[in-house]
## 1
Amino acid sequence: MDSEIRKIALENKDKADFYKAQAFFLEKNWDSTLVYSMKYLAHAGHQELADYCHYFRAFSFKNKKLLQQARKEFLQISKNFRFYYKVRLYLGEIALEESNSELAIHYFKEIENLPETGNYDFKRGVVYHNLGVCYLHQKKYDQADAYFSKGAEVMQAEKDTISLIGSYMNIANLYYEQYKDNIAIPYFEKAYSLSKKIKNVELKQNAALNMAVVAENNKKFPLALTYRKEYESWRDSLNDQNKVWAIAELEKKFTVKQKEKEIGILEAENKLKIAERNGFFYSSLLLLVLFGTGIYFYRQKIKSNRIILSQKNKLDELNAAKDQLFSIVSHDLRSSVNALKTSNSKLAESLECKNFEALDKQLQSNSAIAHSSYNLLDNLLHWALLQTKQLYFHKESVHLFSVVQQMEFNYKPLMQEKNISFENSVPKALFAYADLSSLKIILRNLIDNAIKFSRENGKITIHGSSSEDFCTLTVEDSGQGMSKEIVSQLLDESALVSKKENPEKSGTGLGMQLCLSMAQKNEGKLLIESEENKGTKISIQLLKANKNE
Amino acid sequence: MSKVSVLIIEDTPAESEALVKVLTQNNYAIAGVATTFSEALALFYKNTVDIVIIDVFLNGIPEGITFAETINITPDISRPFVFLTSSNDRQIFERAKLTKPFSFLLKPFNELEILYAIEMAVEKFYEQSNVFLSDDLDTVLSTDSLFIKKKNSLKKVLIDDIVYIEVEERYCNIITEHEKFVIMISLTKISELLEKNKFVKTHRNYIVNANKIEEIVLHDNLVILKGNHKVTLSEKHKDFIKKLNILK
């Protein structure tokens, strides 16, 4: 049967639980068998395998002397099971063990009735023997006798010595109980002699004991004594064996303890290792974070350094521009004051000579020089205020026409001198939202430039126009105009033009810079359109005033 | 129609002289020139002052602002004013800015600029913007007078002096006991005048100063006013007589 189970297991290797159950079954590890067969049963649908499992379980229970459970499991096995006869056999054995001899007989009879020729994996002798035992229990000595002898025959034929000894002893007991000592004693002796050939101590002991009892009963005390002694010796050996077992058990326990200790040590080591590993992990993490922050700050530092460097460069540039401006401005001032000085001495001269015609001209030129110097200084002041953010700035609704008118008023004498005609064609309904003072500065500069670059009998017009959000003032002159390069230079914030192509007239560009900055501050724009020898148009775009304000 | 009187608070004689010259040339009356805060206050209370021109710095301290603050506290005596300043000092300006309505003029300035600044101050003070600059308006209304722009200057008419007003579309003829002149004023302001109970409407085109009524001739539909001015009384507007009775 074992080979059959192995075969089936190999066929069903993929069913892990079943495979394990059978493996443990064959190893006679009953508990594990129970566990895995249960697992398999919990979800198995295969009838044959399920039968096997029930069989494993029943067999395991039987071996663990849990007869009730075993019987239950056996009864669950279907009749189609290959080894169904074995099931009946074991059920019989269970019944026998439970002293239900009638049921046992019923089962055993079934087995007995199986045809002799079939390939059955069981010992027929044992069955006969068991039947005998059953009848013995029922005190049906005749039947018992018949079965015992039948069994003994079979066993003899199969050379199953151990069973045979048991059988003989049972037969002997059978006769002995019927007080047929003559028949019983030879059986006892047979059993005793057979027992000498085998190693089963228990059987030897029983055989010896039986002989001793028989001898005693026959009043053959010396013989009984020897049997007794033999019995004792066997029992002692059995005890020794038990002691050896106990020692082995102890050793086993000891080794188990040893192992447990080792396991404990290993566990502790493991814990230590884990702790070490964790420590290493955390410290490396910390290092990584530190490294990351280090890199971050380093990069931050590099970045700020770069910014500082660029700022420094820009500052240097600005400083250089300022220095340049400073020198140009001081040079301009010096020359104009110098001109005033010489002009004044001339004035005094002509006054002495009473040359009144020249006097008037000289006075006019003096005032022109003073005017331009004043404008330069005024621009310088406002530029400084703007740069240091000290300029007062207050936006309000501004009437463009009157502002233009007011600014024009200052330049009337200058324009008359050059015979320039001026036209203020700003619509009267135009209101800008701007800071009045800065708008005045812008206009002053633009008009001043327009006059400066206009020829005699030129024309200056100021137009006004408006779109949805903006209004635009355009100062147009018919003067000498500028090349595109100069225009772009003028509009470049960082470059202060210091071209002295026309030393008398072209300035520092400071005025233009001021206009640009002021326009920007007013959220406006400054646009230049110019053509050489035709004239210049400069437009200021400003926010339109909200009429509701 | 009388001149607008201006109080000048300025410590630099050269500048105040220039101012006086410009203002008198443009038909303004000078109520006085003060050089200190206390002097200014004295002059302000002594004379009739319509507009004050204030230099922010008097003898190096921003007393001008103090003066503006002082007259601003009491609403009845408060007047329009213009700050004059030569520096663009920011902090001082932040303080000056608090004296609303705030208008200022940066030194140096030309004739047009000061005149414009005065007009702006009046407009801002009486909260009637874009009057003097527009083509179809020229009069700002204050509690007791009208400020009328004539050429470059402002003129003042006391409301109590007005006998009646003749409304003609965009224009109004103002008739006082001795003068007659045309102003341009918005209709809303005319109705404001009416609301003050001093004036009554006797006709679609006539608004009459109730205090100047001498006689009402009902059968001729005429109202006779001081200075022997006669104004038509229309049926529709006869109701005002009842009001007069109540007043009497």
## 2
Amino acid sequence: MTLIREADLGTPAIKSSVLLTVEVDGKTVMVPEGTSVMRAAALTGVTVPKLCASDNLEPFGSCRLCLVEIEGRRGTPASCTTPVEEGMRVTTQTPDLASLRRGVMELYISDHPLDCLTCPANGDCELQDMAGAVGLREVRYGYDGANHLDAPVDDSNPYFDFDPSKCIVCSRCVRACDEVQGTFALNIMGRGFDSTVSAGGTAFVDSECVSCGACVQACPTSTLIEKSVVEQGQPEHSVVTTCAYCGVGCAFKAEMRGNEVIRMMPFKDGKANHGHSCVKGRFAWGYATHSERILSPMIRERITDPWREVSWEEAIGYAASEFKRLQAQYGRDAVGGITSSRCTNEETFLVQKLVRAGFGNNNVDTCARVCHSPTGYGLSATLGTSAGTQDFDSVEQADVVMVIGANPTDAHPVFASQLKRRLRGGARLIVIDPRRIDLVKMPHVQADYHLPLLPGTNVAVINALAHVVVTEGLVDEPYVAERCEPEAFERWRAFIAEERNSPEAVEGATGVPAADLRAAARLYATGGNAAIYYGLGVTEHSQGSTMVMGMANLAMATGNLGRPGVGVNPLRGQNNVQGSCDMGSFPHEFSGYRHVSNDGVRTMFEEAWDVGLETEPGLRIPNMFDAALDGTFKGMYIQGEDLVQSDPNTKHVTAALAAMECVVVHDLFLNETATYAHVFLPGSSFLEKDGTFTNAERRISRVRKAIPPKAGLADWEATMALSNALGYPMTYEHPSEIMDEIARLTPTFAGVSYEKLDRLGSIQWPCNDAAPEGTPVMHEHGFVRGQGLFMVTEYVPTDERTNDRFPLLLTTGRILTQYNVGAQTRRTPNVVWHGEDLLEIHPWDAENRGINDGDLVVVNSRTGETALRAKVSERMQPGVVYTTFHHPDTSANVVTTEFADWATDCPEYKVTAVQVSRTRQRSAWQTEYAATREATTRIAVPAETQP
Amino acid sequence: MVHKANQIALFFASFPREEAIERVADHLRRFWEPRMRRQIIGHVAQGGAGLHELALEAVRRLDAPAPAEQGSGR
């Protein structure tokens, strides 16, 4: 294994059908028109010295190292900013050029510390490389002149240092922040010799910097450098793998020294991220070695007992015997399992197989239940498949982007950077969100329309948008006639044209000005390629599935499906939401979304698994809770999911778990659910196992083991051991064998193998004989279901209503630096930016209640109450408050209700009627939590180690 | 359970009555675990208080699932 260093061709690739022939140092190459001389040279294998150029940044021409000679031209132009011309003949090495370059390097080095041997970038420094490349042997100016060598280091960011004494002011960091990340947090302050890189005149940690790492990656010296490299030294080998955070699924190089991760570097060939990253994937991986990781299996008879560390054999044997006992005592259907969107495809496939084949029932569900299950239902009903329609790169061809109920700059930051780049390039933007999210107005991005609807009124808004399309003659009639079921379309057209669906009629309920809504609808329908991107602000409603269908209706009606630049695109919350759904984690269907009652499909699985399978659907997660409280559901195996912190109405969840007799938690940490567990199986982080994740664009990417499992077994091995102990044999030697089985049993994965993934880098399903290298854009030649099906989407207000007692609407979500229940990110320095959940409240609502920024406030709902600090913010609209659910001592889900999507039971996290008031104390629930948390997580000290 | 069944009925209420009833029934068959179907069938047998008319009719069309099987899995 070696350290992977991707080639840098100096300037970005240019797309042009016109090819020009150019000769560089006698070597001929054909390149697209507009290509730089530097890139053309690199393509011939000629390396031109450079410092300010990088092929992920527009050419800048400041360092003056890349000078070349061009036949027939005077002077020595910079190769990075000079485009090739037909027949151009370029020379990159002459005595004059060498002299010029040495002169430039002398100037740089005259103001640079000569501490290469002790510099953390030693061995990975472009300045050092260039000094060697140009043959620098002396600095005629000496080192005693004016310099920046005493400039203080800014070490305020928890992940990287900024040492301006080493800066050559090439502006790569500033340009990376602008062009790659799109945050515009850095600039060059001062003029001439006084020019310095600045994070807006303040310390990095206090600046607008989002710690994506693009500037650190771009820096050619050690001016911006990871603290881990400063402290540990340079890595020596790389393992290419996939990030375990959000649904973007960024490819990373885990840069290693032995079994130690030195840093995570975004992989340039990653097709989801193209070499970019965010603060979580790039830096927040320290949880994997956090001292709170549990590395030994543990059991206890009662949840009030302390945990007892045991061997894997004893823990697995105990769990299996308990599950067998429960099934013998209470019936075959008294147990079940939960797969995780944080685990690999292979692991989720094994857990659902264990439940179906080992337990003999279909009581398997996944955490997608509480996030994107309506996406599956809604897109399947209308288009025929439970997945987003595009690849991320499709956005580069979008003319109009409609973001609904999503906050990509926080939750999907790397895709957000790509989106912002397209918006800066001229695409128009419609934002539909109760909050004024950053995309509404930020540097160089401004939404054309922000429709600030009231939580719970999505369907009314989408219907009103469609009403404008239908009644103003904006339907793409030929498209609909060719691709959609005519009877269903006519029924929908008649429904949607009714006056009660007009923007004016729904304005009172939605709070969206009718004129804005009409204008947004016209823009979406007539602005060229129009693409919808949406998040949990769509799905986590009592009409989540209806809303998904409504978006599909709108896209079909305007012809915005089936080609690049358009589509209906769910932004999946977790890394493997798509994959866990694909793998048959839902209780009613096998992998590939095929119902368990389908005799042909079930027979195929029965033959492959050599076991009879249940024909009836199993319990969903909330059904499991209800059944537990009814006394008919007694045990569950939970892999990689914290039900207590993430599911709604915490008291209901904990009562259900407490009523069970065997709860097996398989996780990295003693999470909140483990409080109610009898068996704890230590999990393996994404760095410790092989497998695959499938991201929001259906892209299957490899997860590669960088270090051995810290607890001894990868998760798939632990599941296999449990299945074997239950009496259902599993004998896989490697996750690739599990993928081979998935491919044999799942038509959309038929062409997927580890060999092909290694060869292609990643694959978007469907991947089969018809599409052997995968499918970037779905529905290109017709919808998967045949004809697109318009569904009538009646707006039905949620039963969760405000009143005098609960006059505000609470909506929940996440922020950039934390992830989901925070189990990972809370155990990293990301807590610097978000150490507690805050309640965002509009100044009017705050003033009416005498609340100041930072005050402790209590949030009451019909379900419960919790106290947290207030953040007064004009991002909110009056009447709506917002919080995150990252911290268990706040536990926003103590407040949320059990109202849920009609079709899928996805909880209505986005609409809870609450009251907010100042308080001096934590809630009773929080007080009890603080008092009991330690007792419920006690681990007994082995007798031989006791004093 | 009644609330959930009524939510389903409300979604399909815009379809022609016969189709709506069948779609509600189909949804219950495809997504509700047998013990849940047994419960709602039992509720309808008791008069079906609180159920939307379409849900009531749909539940009447469901076959009662077999009682839960005793014994171990595999």
